[in-house]
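Structure tokens please, single chain.
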Amino acid sequence: MAVSMLHEHYVLNPRRSSPLSQRNHTFSLRHYNTAIRYLSSQFTENQLSIEIVLVNCILFVCIELLLGGVHEAITHVHNGVKIINAWKESKVKNTPERTPANDHLIGDVLVPIFEHLNCQTLIYDSPSPVNPPDTDENKELSFDSFSNLYHARNALLVLTSMGIKLAKESPAYKDKRLPEPGSEDERDYTRTLSWHGKWKCAFEKLVTKLGNMSPEAQQGVMLLTIQYKVTNTWAQCCLKDETSFDAYMDEFKNIITLAEKLFENEKEQGGFSFETGTIPQLYVTIIKCRDPVLRRRALALLMNRPRREGFWDSRTVAKMAQKIIDIEEEGLESSDEFPKEEARVWDGRVLPIRAGDPEKEAPTQVFYRLRATIQGEIWRTRVENI
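Here you go.
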């Protein structure tokens, strides 16, 4: 009930100051707070099953995102991941469960959702405090075949989490040192690339098997293709210098062309979606593709299509990306020149804010990181309001 009221208040109702809208807002907050109190008391008394707690975590994330409470939403995601990993550990150790759990619902439905949410927090540089679901070290992944697009999507989420984890923990990301040949980082890198190749083969077999697809299925194939191309490019370059992305200009061009075609055929414009579509992929394309024409084509897609996909708000992301373009292109002598390595932004993250008055838009702070130009230092940083 709270989710429905908040969606109506913040997404469907352009006149939020109306008396009816304000009543809906107050009503939804009251039910939200009541739900949290009830869930906390029942969970403390061991009266709730794990799946009920996880479903409520997902609802709470959705509510906080509608309220603008990114910090609180990330906390709910982390709590859900902790619960899932405790459940997985209990299965390995075969320890008794306090309440019977629906393993199929948790493993096949809820784990992919939290995998998805965990990936979304990347823009805030807030990976889960424990290992993300289904990315255990040394786990062998099987991508021989996919039964449907949903199966392929869930497998791609696992790859995305692995790529993020690999990049965030690599020497190149932490202290600007590339991994040593034969090191564990290099072995993880090789294994991750191998799994990306297996996913691509299985996906191509699935597309061939599907044959003549409905318009909705065609949209799904295009979206998964875009997501794979970005994830694979990220994985290929995550342990290398930023200039390594320059070898993938054709891939970036294909990503942008597919996104343009996807938007042409898309029925819904704007609004709020709990699922991520193309906002993260366009953002990565803009900040890693240094071709001035291509990155501005991608930026135009973000700016001309305002919407929110989970943690990703297209207007905020477009401003972040524009600022990165401005930083990198300072001092360039020609419009077709690429920035040098030391002028390139390695990453940017939004400093999460707590929920306040959603009607008043507070300035968003973004933390950017570049290579240091002073000997003996590793990084130089900039914090900008956008």
